[in-house]
Structure formats: structure tokens, C-alpha cells
Task: inverse folding
């Protein structure tokens, strides 16, 4: 199902237009590739793995279809914009459906809080938990919209490589209270400990600790309520496949099983990439979708770097990692919704273990994905497809996942069996998992962090690796590691920022020195 173009087809690839190489086929890389193809570039995406998607890779195993990563699709209009920029229409390639309720949060005492897009239902749900917090909920949504209007609508799609631009917008950012953490901000509106959790956990979806992530991310409440939470028919992989098809229709190509070894330069300018196979590909510009720590620390080799030195890379705060267990059952669990959060007994204590003490805790807070709640094509008849993810420290914890993973998986299985999936052990017919070590080895993520650098105030915007490289001319950065950050809407925005920085292919570009490659 996934496109695996043979690298040998290089010989027949058209060479008359300016050439762009995108390293990595995550959502950010593919969106940048589509946008550049729409600007007239001849685009080649080189991907290390055997299929596209990166974090959004699709596993087809034992008759089950497992989306590896993103499942909650918000802001579908940003996908529509990518398709338009590539000369296509999203609805011709992918069907997105709204998901309502958005998700259910099961507290450790068994109480379930249902998050929906219906304002009255949400008010009633807040009132059920804490009647005194309803007015705070209304004010919280107003505040969330204010942040959204500035931080997302106005600034997320702008390049932040100029300090002057950053300073000019600093007043707006300070007025929004970006120096508060998400949890501190939420606590200004809600008194109930349960509601403080229900409205503050979202940074975990992008690798941040709610107790230290900048409160800009309170905008997610407005984003979800305005545009809804969606899923793609056929799974998130259908969006990846749709982007690949659009790219190919525009004359672009995807080369899988083609890990990049180095970015080739001529003086201070890129001139292409060298693959681990020894093959070289020439280009007028290169966009890297790979973690900036790897792009700068590995792909630029021993080249002297101005900003992103090994020391600066090592000194940043990286997101947590994830243990993700993908499993299929030979029965269905019809009372389990598409998205569930199964909380454990501790909130701050668990987050401190993950982010501060960097130790794997004995208790869990889990996200459970059951796409077959809406799409039975993803499992054999009468079966369910699941994944469950547990946030864990990144590899700085020193955990030996080779020996730790299977016992950890069994504990998660036990926890699910005790809470939402009774009898699970007797019904598992497919099983595999990803550990922090896999995030390092598969995706080249520094410290095995699942989401790159943490979304802290001083690791955002100008402080994050810039979309136009500070190190080499003609090199651009797209994806979770650059501005605006992790999460599908953000990485799609980063592709827009990159494409806006790059002139149309019809405008003059320095001639590539192909002879040297
Ligand atoms: C389990 C999980 C669940 C998530 N859930 C959600 C969600 O519900 N909603 C949401 O919005 N976000 C979610 N996220 C976050 C979101 O998935 C990511 O932020 C986003 O997909 C990252 O995309 P990216 O473009 O930065 O690149 P990535 O997906 O990281 O892609 C980078 C690509 O580069 C490739 N690569 C690495 N090294 C090389 C090399 N040497 N040569 C060539 N290619 C290379 C990798 O193989 C990969 O394909 C989730 C993430 C995870 C891990």
C-alpha cells in the first residue's frame, strides 16, 4: 500500500527544474515537499525507513493496520492548505470525519470525564465534576481564544529567525502570559483538581510537561473546539499516503530505504546529500525533516557550526519519550471509544518522575487508541486494533529498554485489564512495541525523545532551531524540532514557513555545481 519508489529510478528523473531534496518523510517533510512541488521544484524525498510517515508510519501486521503515532487530527484546514499549495484538493485523496466525543478521561477512581465539542454538554460535564468551576470554564475558553489568535493564527506561521521580529512581537507574547506554565494558567480558572488535570494534560501530546510548558499551549482548547477533532478513514496513514500521491502527481518522488549520511556543501552553500549507500544526489536546496540535533550534529559532519554546536545541542531540554504497545484482539471492546486517557493515581508526582527525576515509574497514565471504534477496515472481522502509549523518560534515564521493555509491557497489559479492557490477556493475537531506544534508532531522535526539544518558552520561536538554517545557506529545517514545534498542526505550519522562505522555482537560483557531486 505504501509507496516504495526504487532509488534506481534516479536516472529517469527529470532534471530541468531546480531541485529540492527533503530529508525525511514525516508530516513536516511531506508537507514541505508538496508545497515546494507546487512552487515548481523537482522534489525528491529521501527516507531512511521502508515506508513514509516517520512518527506517522503505518504498520500492517497480522491483518491489523496500526497507525504508529498521531491519531487526533485537529485543524483540518491546515491540511486543506497543504493540498491547495500542491494544486490538489484534500477531499479527493482523504476522507476526514469529526470525532465526537473528542476523548474520555478516566480518573483513577473510575470517574469518566467526557470531552466534547458541544459547549452546553461541556458546561454540564464541568458542572457535574465541580459546579463552582463552570464560570471559570467559560473564561478559560475566552483566554484560550486570545492566545490562539496571537500565538497560532498570527505568529506560528511566521519565521522567527530575526531577533528584531521576535522583539517586535515580544510585547504580545508577554501580555499573553507565556511565562506561566500550562498548569499554572489552568489553575487560575479551575479549582477542582480533576478539572485542572483534564484541561492541562495536552502538552503531553507534544512532549511537554504541563508544569513547565509555556501557557501558549492553552490554545489547544480553542483549536479543538473551533475546528474539531478528526480521524482519517483508513487511519492517519491515509493522510501520509495522500501526501505522497499528491507529490508524485506533481512529478516528485519518494525514495525509501535511503538513509542520508551527510549534507554536501560547497563553501557555505548546500549542494546535495550523500546517502549511506554511497550514492550522492545533487540539489539547489535541502530541507531537513530530521531532528536538528542529528541534522547539525551528524549530517554536517565536522563542519564548524555557528550556533548549534554539540554543546548547545546537549544543553537543551528534550521532551519525554514514549513506550507504545500496538496490539490486536480477537474480540471487540464496543464500550471503549476511539480515544481514551486512563489516568493513574498520581499526576504531578508521575510527571516529576518522567521529566525531573527521569525514572520510569511503577504507575502509569495511559492514552489508549481504538480506531476500530470508527473504522472496522483496520482489523479483521470481529477484531479490534489498539495502541496504548505510556509517557516515559527519554534515554537520559539510563534505562536498558532491551531488558526492561517486555516486563513493562506486561504491567501495562495488567493495568488495562484491571481498568478498561477486561479479559485482555486471553484475546491478544498481535503485539509489538516501540521503546525510547527505537525513537533514537528509527527516527534519529536525540536522547530518544519522542517530540524533540521541549516546548518551553526559551526553546520556542527564535530560541528554537530556525526554519532557515543558521549554519549553511540553502538548508532549511521542517518538523517538530524547528519552529513552531511538535504536533501535526505545528509541523504542517513549519512546512508553510519553509515554503514561504523559499522563492518560486521560476526565480533565479544559483546554478548547482553538479560536476562536483
Ligand atoms: C506515539 C505518538 C502519538 C502522537 N499523537 C499525536 C496526535 O494525536 N496528534 C498530533 O497532532 N501529534 C501527535 N504526535 C506528534 C506528531 O506525531 C509529531 O510531532 C509529528 O508527526 C512529527 O512529524 P515530523 O515532520 O517532525 O517528522 P517525523 O515524523 O519525526 O519524521 C522524520 C523522518 O525523518 C526520517 N529520517 C531520520 N533519519 C533519517 C536519515 N538519516 N535519512 C533519511 N531520513 C531520515 C525518519 O525516518 C522520519 O520518517 C504523536 C507522536 C507520537 C510519537
Result:
Amino acid at each position: 500500500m505504501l509507496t516504495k519508489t526504487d532509488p534506481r529510478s534516479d536516472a529517469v528523473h527529470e532534471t530541468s527544474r531546480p531541485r529540492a531534496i527533503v530529508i525525511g518523510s514525516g508530516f513536516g517533510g511531506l508537507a514541505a515537499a508538496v508545497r515546494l512541488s507546487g512552487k515548481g521544484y523537482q522534489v525528491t524525498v529521501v527516507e531512511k525507513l521502508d515506508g513514509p510517515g516517520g512518527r506517522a508510519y503505518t504498520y500492517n501486521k497480522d491483518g491489523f493496520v496500526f497507525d504508529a503515532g498521531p491519531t487526533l487530527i485537529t485543524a483540518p484546514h491546515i491540511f486543506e492548505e497543504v493540498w491547495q499549495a500542491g494544486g490538489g484538493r484534500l477531499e479527493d485523496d482523504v476522507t476526514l470525519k469529526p470525532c465526537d466525543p473528542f476523548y474520555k478521561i478516566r480518573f483513577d477512581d473510575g470517574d469518566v470525564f467526557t470531552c466534547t465539542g458541544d459547549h452546553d454538554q461541556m458546561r454540564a460535564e464541568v458542572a457535574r465534576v465541580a459546579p463552582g468551576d463552570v464560570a471559570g470554564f467559560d473564561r478559560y475558553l475566552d483566554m484560550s481564544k486570545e492566545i490562539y489568535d496571537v500565538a497560532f493564527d498570527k505568529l506560528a506561521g511566521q519565521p522567527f529567525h530575526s531577533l528584531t521580529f521576535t522583539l517586535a512581537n515580544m510585547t504580545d507574547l508577554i501580555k499573553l502570559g507565556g511565562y506561566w506554565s500550562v498548569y499554572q494558567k489552568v489553575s487560575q480558572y479551575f479549582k477542582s483538581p480533576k478539572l485542572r488535570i483534564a484541561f492541562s494534560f495536552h502538552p503531553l501530546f507534544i512532549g511537554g510537561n504541563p508544569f513547565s510548558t509555556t501557557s501558549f499551549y492553552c490554545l489547544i482548547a480553542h483549536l479543538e473546539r473551533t475546528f474539531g477533532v478528526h480521524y482519517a478513514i483508513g487511519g492517519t496513514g491515509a493522510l501520509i499516503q495522500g501526501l505522497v500521491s499528491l507529490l508524485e502527481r506533481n512529478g516528485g518522488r519518494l525514495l525509501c530505504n535511503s538513509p542520508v549520511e551527510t549534507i554536501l556543501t560547497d563553501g557555505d552553500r548546500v549542494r546535495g546529500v550523500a546517502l549511506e549507500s554511497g550514492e550522492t544526489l545533487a540539489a539547489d536546496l535541502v530541507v531537513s525533516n530530521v531532528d536538528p540535533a542529528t541534522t547539525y550534529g551528524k549530517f554536517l559532519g565536522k563542519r564548524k557550526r555557528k550556533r548549534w554546536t554539540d554543546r548547545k545541542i546537549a544543553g537543551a531540554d528534550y521532551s519525554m519519550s514514549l513506550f507504545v504497545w500496538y496490539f490486536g484482539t480477537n474480540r471487540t471492546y464496543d464500550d471503549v471509544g476511539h480515544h481514551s486517557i486512563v489516568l493513574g493515581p498520581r499526576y504531578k508526582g508521575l510527571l516529576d518522575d518522567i521529566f525531573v527525576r527521569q525514572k520510569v515509574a511503577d504507575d502509569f497514565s495511559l492514552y489508549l487508541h481504538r480506531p476500530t471504534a470508527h473504522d472496522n477496515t483496520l482489523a479483521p472481522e470481529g477484531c479490534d486494533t489498539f495502541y496504548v502509549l505510556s509517557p516515559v523518560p527519554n534515554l537520559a534515564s539510563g534505562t536498558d529498554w532491551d531488558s526492561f521493555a517486555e516486563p513493562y509491557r506486561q504491567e501495562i497489559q495488567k493495568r488495562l485489564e484491571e481498568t478498561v479492557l477486561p479479559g485482555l490477556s486471553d484475546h491478544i493475537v498481535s503485539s509489538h512495541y516501540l521503546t525510547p531506544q527505537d525513537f533514537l534508532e528509527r527516527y534519529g531522535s536525540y536522547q530518544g525523545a519522542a517530540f524533540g526539544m521541549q516546548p518551553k518558552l526559551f526553546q520556542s520561536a527564535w530560541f528554537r532551531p530556525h526554519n532557515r538554517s543558521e549554519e549553511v545557506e540553502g538548508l532549511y529545517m521542517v518538523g517538530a524540532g524547528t519552529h513552531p514545534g511538535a504536533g501535526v498542526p505545528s509541523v504542517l505550519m513549519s512546512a508553510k514557513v519553509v515554503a514561504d522562505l523559499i522563492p518560486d522555482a521560476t526565480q533565479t537560483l544559483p546554478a548547482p555545481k553538479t560536476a562536483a557531486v
Remarks:
- The chain has three domains: 7-93+232-316+455-516, 120-226, 321-443.
